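Hi there,

I know you've been waiting on this one. I reran it after we fixed the sequence typo, so this is the corrected version. Both the input and the resulting structure follow.
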Amino acid sequence: MRIRVNRMACVGSAICVVDAPTVFEIDELGKAIVVDPHGLTVAPEDLWEAARDCPTQAIVLVNDAGNVLYP
């Protein structure tokens, strides 16, 4: 799986950082960035939780074939 953040949609709520702190960080612009693009440092359910909890659905989960799984 690959993780992306739609920076145009991100409002910097940082819920993703709470749910998966080894995958996401907040940058100097106050928006989320992905520091572990394959999510290898967390359980898959933590990635799904971070994506579902994002208030603007800015977190995009993509499978290895390139298909968008969420949102």
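Quick highlight: Strands lie at 2-5, 24-26, 32-34, 59-62, 68-70.

Best,
R. S.
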